[in-house]
Amino acid sequence: MSLNSTPSSERIQIGFFGKRNSGKSSLINALTNQNLSIVSEIKGTTTDPVQKAMELLPLGPVVIIDTAGYDDEGELGLLRIEKTMQILNKVDIAVLTADATVGLSDEDKDFIKKFEQKNIKYIIVYNKSDLLEFLPPTKPNEIFVSSHLKTNIDKLKELISQIYEKNPQKKELLQDLINKNDTAILVTPIDGAAPKGRLILPQQQVLRSLLDKGAITLVVQADELIQALKICGNSPKIVITDSQVFEKVKDIVPKDILLTSFSIIFARYKGVLDKAVKALNVLPNLNNNDLILISEGCTHHRQCDDIGTVKLPKWIQSYTNKTFNFEFTSGQGFPADLSKYKFIIHCGGCMLNDKEVLSRYESAQAQNIPMTNYGILIAQMNGILKRSLEPFNDIYDLLR
Question: What is the secondary structure of 143-185 as a DSSP string?
Fold first, then answer.
């Protein structure tokens, strides 16, 4: 994907589900007009979910996800089914593929119930329709297709577009924080973990949002912040910083200037800011040797001073004056069973879509495990949580 492509977290996520040999992979290949998935008569060809970011008209930027059959067998089969179940936490639209010559099985019907339980909009596609003598009537969210002959593939695209409706309640990234001609300063430290030649995704997305708002934006590292404030006459509307340099930035930015972090902005954007703030109440009650999970939504090469595995454990133990045990996960490796943890610290989730971030917080909440994110915890440990939440009046009220 190029640097100017729509991030996967902002794309419509379309998951394809079904029993083994129901024709999921051949349907995806026909729908995308590409050989994205391996097609075979051997059951269980698709193992781990296969994901592909692409443009699918008339929808636009999407992620197509091919999953393993939910009737898989054996020890490995159960692991594949578990991976398939995880995909339910992120998809915007589910496409259930059934063999038209067989119809819906009991397993199919059970899986449809899972869509409904998770409020996932879904379509039932009866594939291999070329093997039928006549087509029975369908419901509004059903369609007969032939991936072999590519019959009704265009109609399927149209149906997916009709089923999907953008959430009108979806907030902008900066929503009510910035107006046209406001000045904003972005503090973006360039360290060993930063991708060479480019900004990390949260910084890119905030910068683009500022440009869309018509704001005047300065992008600096922490050492240039004092000079940037002089250029602005000490009157920018807001300073948005990488949370790793909160300790330095907090002493430079005057109290009458709004100050927050990329991570906190993303927590609000993903709809979990209130949950993440409330979770901090557990900090004084943590005990020595408690197990803490530190989780990141992406996978990247770990540096010697990595924030997740090195800096955060050191900071939280120094802040609490206690010694803890830590476990680390990344990418899709967020555990279903969280019962052994006393506290969870998650990244900002810029690589995950809203549904997946929210599902992780809801899973933690259902298991009574407090969960916060990097920026909110770091703000708390630097004594500036209230200040960093001032731009968000509804959340700031939680701390009054």
Answer: EE-BTTTTBTHHHHHHHHHHH----TTPPPSSTTS--TT-EEE
Residue 58 resides in a domain = yes
Domains contained in the chain, number: 3
Q: Cα separation of 333 and 352, whole Å?
A: 12
Question: Do 13 and 158 share a domain, yes or no?
Answer: yes
Angle between helices 201-213 and 262-269 (to 10 degrees): 70
Q: How many CB atoms lie within 10 A of CB 256?
A: 7
Measured distance CA(160)–CA(123) in Å, rounded: 7
Note whether residue 173 is domain-resident.
no
Selection from 146, 119, 5 nearest residue 62 by Cα: 5
Which structural domain range is residue 251 located in? Answer: 183-267
Which pTM was predicted? 0.82
Average pLDDT over residues 261-278: 93
pLDDT tens column, 176-220? 889 999 999 999 988 665 566 678 888 999 999 999 999 999 999
Position 393 in a domain: no
